[in-house]
Amino acid sequence: MKKKEISTLLSFIAEGLILFDKNGLITLVNPHATLLLDYTSGELLGKKLCNVVDIYINKTKIGKNTITEVIFKEGKAFNTPPGKVVSFKSRGGRIFPVFISAKSIGSTIGLGDSLGGVLIFRDITTEKELENYKLNTAKRLARLTPVLQKTSIGNLDVRVNVPSKEDEFTELFVGLNLMMDDLEELEKTRRESEQEKMTAVFAAESEKRKLTEKYSKELEKQVKEKTRELNQSKLHIETIIENLTNGLLEFDNDYQLVRINRTAEALLGVERKAVVGKKINFEGKDPTLASLVEVIGPKPSKGIKNYLGKEKSSREISTNYPIERDLNISTVPIFSNLPSKKNIGFIKIIRDITREKIISKSKSEFISIAAHQLRTPLSGIKWALQTLIQDKKIDDKQRDLLNKSLETNNRMINLVGDLLNVARIEEGRFGYEFKKNNIEDLISSIISNSEIVAKEKKIKIIFRNSKSFKPFIFDENKISLAIQNLIDNAIKYTPVNGFITIKLFEKDDYVNIEITDTGIGIPENQLDRMFTKFFRAKNVMKISTSGSGLGLFIAKNVVDKHEGFINFVSKEGEGSTFTLGLPLNKNFIHKEDEVIAG
Amino acid sequence: MNNKKVLLVEDDDFLRQLVGSKLTDDGFALNVAVDSVGVFTLLEKEKPDLILLDVMLPGLDGFQILEKIKSDKSNEAIPVVILSNLGQKEDKDKAFSLGAKDFWIKAYLDLDEIVEKINKIFEEKK
Q1: Residues with Cβ < 8 Å from A255, sequence gap 6 or more?
Q2: N or C: which end of chain B has fewer CB within 10 A?
Q3: In chain B, what residues touch A384 (CB-CB under 8 Å)?
Q4: What start-end ranges are recorded for coiled-coil regions in this protein (chain A) (predicted)?
């Protein structure tokens, strides 16, 4: 191949290529080589390479004939030693790493046959840089390893040392450090929050402990207070019990006396030390315990339950010891406040009713005597006046006067009778006598009694009977009194020429006696007071001052006792209608008065 | 007129006088007593046809006298009417249980009515 052609060919090679002869003198360079070495080919040709270019292995400049000696004398190829960097220094002074490969050309026979040598080099600055970069990166990253290792086990104190010279890792390192800082901060926060939590838990526990202590102290205080209160109230109750004006005895279920108060001691003539805590001997003959035994009552044959019942019971007894007394004994069972409600004993309350009895008896006697004592002179006057009225020797004027006196006297007698009845009613001893009676006969007889008075006022009494009634049970005298009172009122408060209509009929198992008058009526605002004792309506007071105001009170009580009813309608100035109802069924009537009367 | 013998037992002078004169005027043969002593002294001598007996009396009261009369065979047949100003149910019950013929309340009766009632009793007896 011609030299020119070779040159042209070589100029296409992207590596620096230098041909030299056996003496090391450059015979050919390609453009790439001249470019890299910063010489023209003319400046290089004929010169020794080592005289124009400094060659370094690593940082050490190699000897001037090192290459030629290696390839020509040693017959080896000169290559970049492994692990080392060969660098060229261009004319401009630029040192750049190169890939270098030089060897002799031509003869394979012996060293002496060499035609020359060839040196190929390539600027490996970029490659080196890359390599350096790789190395550097590996080195840098290697520095991270321990940091990361420490971090991974939770040690966040370590930091990557950021070189003062900024490079592409600076950001990473700084970032890493920042991350570490963040982590550390997080950790710190976590620790702090943990600490806070711990502190909070401790605080809470301590608070709890304090509260518990406080509560238990409070509780203790309250218990003390309650105990004191209980003691106080026990004392209080005991004081009250001790000073009750009623006697009080408490027994357990076994008839053992638990307590006795002062009044009971006095009433029964016993001393507590002799009886408290002891079982009362029913058969005992001790006269000083007689009253106590009497208070307890007859010994129950079938145990205390049968004896006591569930409710309070009351009875009256008379005792002789220590003095004669009438006592009211109330027995109250005591029940446990446990759900079982078990009977755990009983209390006997003793009330001294001696005086009450005397007073009640005196009152009763007084009423009888008063009635008698009042009626006796009234009877005398009545009879005397009647005797006088019948005397033919007196004139009409005198007779009129005497008649008026008699009338007044009769009112007096009626008033005394009313008062006596009211007293008896209030005493509960009106003395009822319930038996079968004929209501029609009764009404007819009352009407005939009243007709004399009615005629004087020219009042007509009309009796309308719907049917014939069989006798039924009621107290004839008392019902007579009630009906008489109603008819008396009707006559009294009906003006001259009026009418009184009495209707007798049955309605809903009640016998109705309806008395209608054409009288003055009852003022509307006084209707509700009609049946109260001593009530007299305003308009009535203007007409007549007589009248006890007891008639309707008595009538109402009598009818109530019969479980009947009494009601009325009235219009002032037009008249009134009173209706009295009596039950036909005898079971409606209660028996207590019969018992008392008996 | 009828000559029926009535024994009036009444301690109140005024009442005794009024009833007594009424009965005498109406033709009854009247004896009066003011207490139990008088009653039984008279009963020894003569048996009346009717006794009008007050309750509130000095000494034995009307009920006791009634009881005594009724327990004496020689007197038990004589009708005894209580003429009193008592008059409650228990008084009446007591009187009737002791054998009283009737129970009249003075204040509620006229003298005429008393005579009327006496005559009724005598008529019943016939």
Answers
A1: A279, A280, A296, A304
A2: C
A3: 14, 18
A4: 176-236
